[in-house]
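Weekly structure sync - notes
Attendees: PM, LS, DV (DV joined late)
Agenda: review two folding runs queued last week.

Item 1: First target. Sequence and structure tokens pasted below for the record.
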Amino acid sequence: MNKTTFRNATSSDWNHIAQLLQEAKLPLDGAQDHLDHFVLAIKDESLIGCAGLEVYGECALLRSVAVSAGERGKGLGIKLTEEILKRAKEKHIQHVILLTETAQNFFPKFGFRIIKRDDAPAPVKESVEFKGACCESAVTMQLDL
């Protein structure tokens, strides 16, 4: 059984990332512009998970946390989230924001708390996700690092 490894995304990974995000019913809008802040989970040379950050100074939007169907329920989402948050700390990011329609019970284990959408930092509210890729009904959450 091969081990899962994590690596930074490159532009050549986009088609595989886009396919994974579509399978997970997550928005593609704006993701490709932030690939330099994506971490990928690779197993047997195949993409099995991803997580991304959109960095806006001291703030970042956590987005595109996705795990392939065959790998769900094995803890990979937790490992991906831990890895991307570690990278956020290394970048001296102070606040991580996310929008979710389905995972509001997943993220509190990392310290995320629900906030009002209007209370998100102004730079993050300029992101494609806030401006329309993620619907108004999505729960907004914040983690202070």
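Item 2: Second target, run right after the first with the same settings.
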Amino acid sequence: MLDPLLRRLIDPPLDGAGAWLANRGVTANQATLGGVAIGLLVVPLLAGGYYNAALIIVLLNRLLDGLDGAIARQGAPTPIGGYLDIVCDFVFYAAVPLGFALASPTNAVWAALLLASFMCTGASFLGRAIMAAQQQEPDDDARGRKSFFHSAGLIEGSETVAAFLLFCLFPGTFPWLAAIFALLCFWTAAQRVLEAYRVGVDSKE
């Protein structure tokens, strides 16, 4: 929901940093893989209760996730780059609930619910992208120039990062926060399914 607004604010500095890195031989895929490698550190940090350190890792991962796209935009983004980026995003998104599940048995059920909601949002997001490609739907580029169609939703990348930061800042409330965020994710998945159905019906008329 907030991605289009935030893209307008963060893309200019990211593009500057991306150009600087690209000129020094850093590739977008290197940034992507470096980001997920750093991001996976949240699992042992959260499991050990090092929430402030985990918060820093979340921010570093998201910074590198933004930089890989900025580096790619200095040339021509490739299909494998877009594929690698989304796979690494989902790996990181799964790592955070896993870390909280390992931190306390109390968190386990709510972490599982959160992971289930991520499965739904991920499936609805990627399925919608496939449908858009099949029907050659244009992307409005409101979320920046992407390698494939990005469907809008109540919960997108910005909201997910905000939720992860709240989890780290207030770990004692993780069950409540995770439950609320999971419900919003389920709502988002339902929105995308309804949108896909509407587009599918309209295309037949």
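Discussion on item 2: The mean pLDDT is 88.
Action: LS to circulate a short write-up before next sync.
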